Amino acid sequence: MNIIPKPLHCVVKEHTIKLGKATKISGDFEQTKKFAKDILGNIDGGEGSELRFLTDEKVPHEGYVFICDKNSKVLTISASGEAGAFYGLMTLKQLLGNDDIIHCADIQDSPKYAYRGFMLDSARHFWSVEKIKQILDIMANLKMNIFHWHLTDDQGWRAEIKKYPLLTEKGCIRKDTPLSLKGYVQKKEPHDGVEYGKGLFYSQEEMKDIVAYAKERHIEVVPEVDMPGHMVAAISCYPNLSCDEKPAEVSNRWGVMDNICCCGKEDVYNFAKDIIDELCEIFTGRFFHIGGDEVPKSRWEKCPRCQAKIKELGLKNENALQGYFNNEIAKYLKSKGKRMIGWNEVLDAQDIMDNDIVAQWWVKRKGDKNEFAWMEKGGKLILSMSSYVYMDHPYNVRPLSKTYSLSAEKLGVMNDSNIFGMEIPQWTEYISKEQKLDMLTFARLIAFAEVCWTDSSKRNYKDFEGRLENMRDYFKTIKCNVCPQKIYRGKVYPKKYFTNALRWNLWRICPNYEFDEMLKMQNTQKN
Ligand code: ACM
Ligand code: ZN
Questions:
Q1: Is the pLDDT of residue 388 over 70?
Q2: Residue 34: pLDDT band by 50, 70, 90 thresholds?
């Protein structure tokens, strides 16, 4: 059946059922019935048929049972809650495709992981509210339920904070944008010479609108304010946040910056708490992401305030100072009913770490001892291993089949009980236009949706590819580009004899090479 993610159990039937405007929509789940009305409202006919939503407490959370009765022309979707009913409807929507006749099936379905996320970097490049809503629609269609929103970084601050207006007056603007990493070490990488970001931020009303839109589709928005590193945009507005308090500019370079917040200063803790106060009024979900990745400690080593704080608290070293900062923020978030998430570097101080913090595992380091030790203590992880899922990386290095092959076992995790879920991030250093965002997002998003919903024992890449190709029609109707098959297979360009190392270098020097190839291919396609 053309369903992505592939359902747990599916028995295809011989008979068909015709649904449309005239279909009677009955039963429970008012919110889902409204969506059903919209979907069927676009299709003529359906007289005598019925779409019935029923409550069944035995169906697992987010699961649904879909039964298509041959004689009565009734299609029943049973679920224990609104989310499951909605996912049953999303299955129906996929089965309808552009057709009005459904080839019936009895389906019993529920997800492998409760946390199925997509992350969008709105800091490096801004994405309109309209575009984000389109992505949320697509996520809902794919039964994904977490939108992790990367709102701040060294190169731009994009969330309105009323107490600190400079963040979106000045902190959202950078002088220009790097075009590649060619000559990066010598600080000679090419730039476009064009100022970026004036007015490109989300007002509090816009963020609330996104949260509400997502919630209707059973998606929780997790805001990320990356701290204490990746904070140059904020430091450029408020230099007292840094160790040396020197004036700084919003960064116009990619990579890891050593200018970070000074965790020896109360001002920094208060700033973080003020930001959290405002954002927690907007983001009403269970989680708050504080980043915590890539925090070089060179400035802290020399900073009298950081050193005094380490001494005062009896901390072991600078990593422990970050651990202390994380714990303080986690405590504050907890007082607001939120659970903190951080990238896996937060585990560097796990001996003192609040065990409620969830770590998002994106990079392999030091034999992964930290991650496994964390799980042994019962700590929770979200799997986002860059070598499998980073969407901005080229298919030549990381074909779609690699993303599709991800499982906890592949990462050496044999006990799923510590896996909170999975997430696929889209970093947008080299993505400024929607066309490129689409091309580099949707094929992997579709694959990933199946990875976090369907157990690896039930997945088959070849079968998946067929269903993905069948889904192109849906993307065409919503005017979204999906990467051509030859490209996502990762074999066509450059020549086969290129090693992975060479492919990487090519991407670093020329990050558009694969996208240019996608465009050429798309333009030569007849359809
Ligand atoms: C990351 O990619 N720095 C989380
Ligand atoms: Zn300091």
A1: yes
A2: very high
Nearest CA to ligand 1 atom 1: 293
pTM: 0.97
Question: Which of 120, 225, 293 best tests ligand 1's pocket when mutated (most atoms within 8 Å of CB)?
Answer: 293
State pLDDT tens for residues 409-431: 999 998 899 999 999 999 999 99
Residue 496: predicted pLDDT: 66
Residues ≥6 apart with Cβ < 8 Å to 435: 481
Confidence of residue 526 (pLDDT cuts 50, 70, 90): very low
Question: What is the DSSP-derived secondary structure letter of residue 128?
Answer: -
Cα of 251 vs centre of ligand 1, distance in Å, is 17
* Cis ω for the linkage preceding 425 (within 30 of 0): no
Cα-to-centroid distance, 174 and ligand 2 (Å) = 25
| Selection from 24, 49, 202, 30 nearest residue 129 by Cα | 202
CA-to-CA separations, 227 to 263, 303, 304, 444, in angstroms, rounded: 10, 18, 20, 28
Residue of 125, 188, 190, 124 whose CA lies nearest to 154:
124
Measured from CB, residues less than 6 Å from any atom of ligand 1 are: 293-294, 343, 362
Which of 81, 77, 208, 92 has its CA nearest to residue 141? 92
Is 527 a residue whose pLDDT tops 60?
Answer: no
The residue whose CA is least distant from atom 2 of ligand 1 is 362
Cα separation, 188 vs 191, in Å, equals 9
Ordered alpha helix ranges (H), 120-265: 129-141, 166-169, 204-216, 232-237
- Distance in angstroms between the alpha carbons of the first and the last residue of the chain: 24
Edge-first strand order for the sheet with 9-18 is 9-18, 101-109, 64-68, 74-79, 50-55, 24-27
Tokens of 39: 């979907």
- Domains of the chain (ranges, CATH numbers): 9-109 (3.30.379.10), 115-514 (3.20.20.80)
pLDDT of residue 280: 98
pLDDT, average across residues 306-319? 98
- The C-alpha atoms of residue 479 and residue 64 are separated, in whole angstroms, by 30
